[in-house]
Amino acid sequence: MPVLSSGCFFFAIDANLTSIGDMSQQSKSKAKRKTSAWYQRHANDPHVKRAQAEGKRSRAAFKLTEVLEKNQLQIKRNAVIVDLGCAPGSWCEELVQRVGETGLVIGVDLLDMQPVSRVTFIQGDFTEAKTLAEVSEAVGERRVDMVVSDMAPEMSGNKLVDQAHTIGLNDETLSFAVNHLREGGNLLLKTFMGDGFDAFRKEMTGWFAKMKIVKPAASRKSSSEIYLLGTGFRRPNP
């Protein structure tokens, strides 16, 4: 009996180890299938194919151009625009074509970015004093006509935490815009529906003559991202 008992004991351990091994393989297979599915959607995305064909840095370029064109946002040839979270530079490329030789596009990002002709790139955190000082130096005596942001926080998978980080980032972006925009300027930023969204939208509405929620066609239907467009920035009366 002792031998039999011992044998059963070892068999149970082996069976458990096999089960864990199977689970590990299943987890890897699931992750692989998920990655493969994402890649297939990405590769077959018409906006990705178009971006590749036209030499764009990313499909995000079409999100910006659609918002500008559908909302008839005319960018003056000498405009000053700040692109927060600009890497890899697809929005900068579109904007610099619109502001002309006398305009100014300033891109800010924590990540490095391959140079874009006639774009002033500042690597740093736009909420920190050092980076803000560099932006102010680049702008000089001029006022900013438009602030754009396609930023999103690094997602953890926890919806409540991620949404809180998103709204926090939106707040920082709005604060930057309030401190830099000229009277009548515009703000376009990415956000997500969820806790805190309505309160933030209300806060942003107070600073602009018009507010609009936009969902460009180049933004995947499966994505919950949306954009808030504020036009006609107005400072409160002193």
Brief overview, please?
The protein is α/β, with parallel strands linked by helices and 238 residues long.
Shape estimate = globular
Strand content: 15-25%
CATH fold-type name of the largest domain: Rossmann fold
Count of the separate structural domains: 2
Global Rg: 24 Å
- Please write the CATH class name of the largest domain: Alpha Beta
- CATH homologous superfamily identity of the largest domain: Vaccinia Virus protein VP39
Q: Helix and strand string, N-terminal first?
A: HHHEHEEHEHEHEE
Give average pLDDT, whole number.
Answer: 83
**Which structural class should the secondary elements be placed in?**
alpha/beta
Query: How many β-strands, per DSSP?
Result: 7
Number of helices: 7
How do the helices and strands line up, and which of them pair or pack?
Blueprint: H1 2-44, H2 46-54, H3 60-70, E1 80-84, H4 90-99, E2 104-109, E3 119-123, H5 129-139, E4 144-149, H6 159-180, E5 181-192, H7 197-205, E6 208-214, E7 225-233
Helix pairs in contact: 3-4
